[in-house]
Amino acid sequence: MRRALWILAVLLSHWRRHKMQFATLLIGLIAATALWSGVQAINQQARNAYDRAAATFGGARTAMLVAPKAATFSQELFVKLRRAGWPVSPVLEGRVQINGRSVRLLGIEPVTLPADVGNAPRLGASDLSSFVAPPGQTLVARETLADLHEAEGAAPAISDGAKLPPLRVLPQLVPDVLVVDIGVAQRLLNKPDQVSRLLIGEAKGKPAPLASVVGEQLQRVEPDAETELEHLTDSFHLNLTAFGLLSFFVGLFIVNSAVGLAFEQRLPMLRTLRACGASARLVNTVLVIELVALALIAGLIGLACGYFIAAALLPDVAASLRGLYGAQIPGQLGLRGEWWLAGIGISVAGALVAAATSLIKAVRMPVLATAQPRAWQQRQRRWLILQSCAACAVFAVASLLLHYGQSLIAGFGVLAALMLGAALILPAFLDIILLAGQRVARGPLALWFWADSRQQLSGLSLALMALLLALAVNVGVSTMVETFSRTFIGWLDGRLAADVYISASDNAQGVAIRSWLKERSDVQAILSGGRTEAQIQGQPVELLGLPDHALYRERWPLLQVAPRAWTRLVPGNAAFISEQLSRRLNVRLGDVIEVPAPGGTWELDIVGIYADYGNPRGQLAVNVAALIRQFPQTPQTRMGLIVAKEHIPGLIAALQKQFALDDRSVADQATVKAESIRIFNRTFAVTSALNAFTLGVAGIALLTSLLTLANSRLPQLAPLWAIGITRPRLAAIELTKTLSVALFTSLLAVPLGLLVAWCLIAIVNVKAFGWRLPFHVFPLQLVELVVVALLASLVAALLPMLRLARMQPTTLVKVFANER
Amino acid sequence: MEANNGFKTNATRHFRSKCATEQLCQFRPAPFIVLSIRNLSKTFSSAGEPVHVLRGVDLDLRHGERVALTGESGSGKSTLLHLIAGLDAADGGTIQLEEIEVTKLSDAGRAGLRRDRIGLVFQQFNLVPSLSVADNLAFQARIAGRHDAAWIKELVERLGLGGLLKRYPEQISGGQQQRVAIGRALATKPSLLLADEPTGNLDEATAEDVLALTRDLVARTGCGFLMVTHSLHLAATLDRHLTLHAGRIA
Amino acid sequence: MSADRISRRAFAAGIAALALARRAGAQGYAGLGETADGFAKVTPGKAFTFPADHGPHPEFRIEWWYLTANLVDGSGAACGLQWTLFRQAAQPGPQGEGWANQQVWMAHAAVTRADTHRFNETFSRGGVGQAGVTAKPFDAWIDNWEMKGLERTDDRTLAPLTLKASGTDFSYALTLEADRPVVLQGNGGYSRKSERGQASYYYSQPFYRARGNLTIDAKSVDVTGQAWMDREWSSQPLDADQTGWDWLSLHLASGDKLMLYRLRQKDGKDYPFGNWISATGETQMIAGGDIQMTPKATADVAGRKLPVEWQIAIPSRSFSIACKPLNPKAWMGTGFSYWEGPISFAGSHDGVGYLELTGY
């Protein structure tokens, strides 16, 4: 043990003399761990939230009994089952309108509620009586309380005038749901003695078979392994994970180059140790211990950074998820122990992987050095050929995936293979360019410039690969976001045709508003809309009612349209389908779709396909009058108004005054548009932030590689100095070399990035969101990125070059005196 | 980790502990043979052709005896030294260091042997660049678990390194570096000191100084000393001078 | 008569947890020391009428149907079982309809052998039919646990009855027969609990003969033996400073029955009570000063020290016995926990019975 400690002390002494290298190694590990674990923290937070939502008093996470044909059934079945030994607990679910906002109302029966209902919030025994006994309580999450503009203890009225029991905050409750006693729920929802489902708890003994108790009236539904939310948001998290992984690998590139350099520099030390009688096994073990210890330290720091990254990004992520999928994620970061352990684990594993080649070299190292290293050209050629072969193999995989892959993961696989292949082929690509340069070079210094650049390739290539990847991703993501942004805004202009939007709190108010509006001369038209929900092939689908108005015919954007589509919509037997739903159901123009309606199946011809960006649900657009005929329950609370611009503020003020509507219930087009764009921007804020982070990490990789390279390059530079080239001149040449390879790399990154963008738009987006965007290239943006990359390289190269320019001549002299 | 290398018989342990108590190993019986080599052979292959470097070397070295080994370039001087130090494995013959048959040891066993019984000095000073002079002097003894502060203090005095302890190898001269290397090799009180061209990188005056110091220290510790050198002049200053020729000791 | 047994009953347990726990703990064991505002009061001189009084009395805060049985199986091995249904009103006043009903029901079931003790509990709200009691025909149920009269059930003896319950790893089914009428405890069914007037209505049927089968871990055995049912209701059975009780129901070999308990107080004093029921059904209260209840040995169960062995003497009746539990680990780890298990005793009299220890 003591021996190992002394060997460790000798090994560690290297870092004392090479602080920059040490910092590089740590920075690499920290960067790798930080971004990866930051992204994981966000994902974990989101998954917890989905779990919580799913498990809320027995959501999808508990086995349950439901009526196969009806939304609710008699609670007598509950009593029957209990008396047959079934450990069931009744739940009644519905929606209520509070302050014009629709909220889910959940009635539970706390006395029989199974104790093992997922991680549902448990009511403490002491709270039970106040929950059950009049006036009872309405449990609500703090976020929802704020959304409803209510205070704890208040008893808000629902739309039909009935009052909820006083609100009480239950912090661990999922947002957007109100939980009351089942008796209260039956009264508020006007469903006496009815329940929506029975949650199944742990059986006491063996209950009678279900059919013998309730016949065919109820059927058992097993808990979902994955909830609808998880399914919907998978793509989003995969996206984040891909970014995390990318940064992780870029971080490992840094670690790899730092460890590799340190190993080369410590070779004589290792030999001396072995010559002095430290056995190979012990030295290698201590090398691994040293690495693991460093990885642990860096891992902890990285985790702390990851925590802050996650905390900083979380609000945007939460906004994106809410905007895109309606998923509610708490904005406060809460982490589990597993996260910390996994983070440390990934740091150690990453360090070991990054250092594997060096460690293997150390294990195989003979005590007696063969003093002369192989000629670098020979080694580099073999290495270039090998890497290029690997690149070709990876490209082959990419094309296979592109051709045969169906899933989102395959889409990301294409992306990953594309980038990995490009990274692998980069050195060969640069070598060819530099070789070409060498061929056309005139004069000895120019010749040396090209030749030496080529020699430098092996040392810089990892950093350059990192730069290439970061740049390509940047180009890809920027292109996609920009494309999306333009498409979205254009689409929004078409979609938001009316000038003022109103959402009444209930049908009665809707009628009142309509008749009031009809009296006004400043309203040119009232466009009534409607929206309801149906199930198609087991999936919830929105039905959107469109008014028959010239404005819609002119402006409502359609991707594909059949002849006379708008006219065919009017009688009510035709529909437009949203792009995502058409993909999901594999429906084309001219197909017929069957919608289960209260009065029977509603057959609809598909006469148009429209983009519906940002909507996680599939949607069908039909004539509003037809919709109300088929679904009489459709709330008739939404309407758009056509109003001359100058009358808008006055009209809104009057509406607000007359009907006590708040900002959410009445808004002008500009406000709605601004809100939509705000949500849109937040959706991509995370992507942009991660993008910037990744570029930053790549910059660090370049900087550290250059720094470590600078020292080892003295032997190459000293002869030039000796033949009379000044140090500042040498530094300038070095800088030019670095910038030129960075430029070549950036130029390769541009087409690669565009390819990435195409993958994102044509594969990933389609799989993840169900919509495809037109592909645009934005040249100015590309130039901007190349310039940024060059600036980053300049900054990275500047420090070592300044050091070279200021280097004492004695240091250069020493190269000759002390050459090893 | 390497305590069980098989070469520490009870007898040696007894002997060593006795030595340790008496600080200096002057009480080793003078005619005690520290190194005995019989019929040692080693063959390398170069461009597919076997090169017989050593063809049956025989050599005996007593405690306190100082022997110089010369020979033309490529005669196998360094190879012989490497084989004795266990840095490489012989193809035939035996090397016996005190009671231990070096040629029968495993790689780890040979490492243990170097650590505990052999001091090595090379032409390139082989100091750890990131350790100070003081740490370079001490680390082999530390790793061997035989650190003796008083002995190292004496070494520092005798080698004239007193003012340099806090410096790093790159901050001292070549002669000073070689003195540090010699001090490190002797810090474990080895049975045998092996030196491969220890003065090859030094000017003549410095070389003589360094060798004189080494001779004195070898006498002080009573270990055996085998030095490979080009210099017949330096070789002449030792007790015995052997020449390696055509793979044998002439 | 002091059948202040009411104190005994672990009713306390779950129901108090459900309905009263807001203030529980502050006042006596499990809230049994609550004041009775708004609920009906227990006053002396009530005329008991059957079958009506076999049914629920929702105007009182708490009530129970509590049955213990000392049984033997075919091989002669002793075992015991417990079946208890508790009712508690969360609020006084008129009975609410459906889910608005303020009654909360709780039940405990347990079986005990020398080598094992199994228990289970279940809860229900009143008003929807998941649990309840009807007097005629007699039926007390919660989920699929049930104590039910037959066509020929006699209101005076409250027999015959069938009884069933099941837990995750046990179940039982018994029929209960009795040929003597129920016995009013205390003073004509008025059982005083303290000097300050806390009291309950209390009657028992200690003469049941039981027969049926008992299943533990899917192994079923036939059992026979004797059983004891307590019926009790009150609105404030315990005084605020009473912390718990040690209670015994004893089946003497002679056919006589004996009910004994002591209430423990915060000040460390305790008050013993007793009631002797002759084999023919006559009852006689035993003066507190005449009862000597001495814990003899404790068992470590569920992190507590419980006095499971007792020396009991009633000098005036030349009664002196030593009680031992069938299984010292008969811990009811239910919502509110207590110890309840079969015992056997020997000395001046031999026999079997049940012991209950609460508030430890």
Q: Which key terms come to mind for this protein?
A:
heterotrimer; A: 820 residues; alpha+beta; ten-stranded mixed sheet; eight-stranded mixed sheet; 25 helices; 61% helix; 13% strand; B: 250 residues; alpha/beta; Rossmann fold; six-stranded mixed sheet; four-stranded antiparallel sheet; 8 helices; 36% helix; disordered N terminus
Structure description:
The complex is a heterotrimer of chains A (820), B (250) and C (360). Chain A is α+β, with helices and mostly antiparallel strands and 820 residues long. Among the domains of chain A are: 162 residues, no CATH class; 156 residues, no CATH class. Chain A is 61% helix and 13% strand. Chain A is globular and about 95 Å long. Chain B is an alpha/beta fold and 250 residues long. Chain B has one domain: P-loop containing nucleotide triphosphate hydrolases (Rossmann fold), CATH 3.40.50.300. In chain B, a hairpin with a 2-residue loop joins β4 and β5. In chain B, 48% of the residues are buried. Chain C has one domain: AttH-like fold (Beta Barrel), CATH 2.40.370.10. In chain C, a hairpin with a 4-residue loop joins β1 and β2. The N terminus of chain C is likely disordered. Chains A and C meet through α3, α4 and α6 of A and α2 and β4 of C.
Instruction: Find the count of extended strands of chain C (DSSP E, 2+ residues).
Output: 23
Order of helices and strands of chain C: HHEEEEEEEEEEEEEEEEEEEEEEE
Give the C-alpha Rg of chain C.
19 Å
The helix fraction of chain A, in percent, is 55-70%
- Give the C-alpha Rg of chain A: 33 Å
Report on the biggest sheet of chain C. 13 strands, antiparallel
Q: Terminal Cα separation of chain A, in Å?
A: 33 Å
Unreliable segments of chain A (pLDDT under 50, ≥5 consecutive)?
Answer: 370-374
- How much of the sequence of chain C is in beta strands? over 45%
**How many strand elements of chain A?**
20
Task: Describe the largest sheet of chain A.
Answer: 10 strands, mixed
What is CATH's topology name of chain C?
Answer: AttH-like fold
Total helical segments of chain C: 2
Give the overall silhouette of chain A. globular
Task: Work out the count of structural domains of chain C.
Answer: 1
> DSSP helix count of chain A?
25
Shape of chain C: globular
Q: Output the CATH class name of chain C.
A: Mainly Beta
Pfam family, one (chain C): Lipocalin_9
InterPro entries (chain C): AttH-like_dom_sf, AttH_dom
Organism (chain C): Bradyrhizobium diversitatis
Protein name (chain C): Iron ABC transporter permease
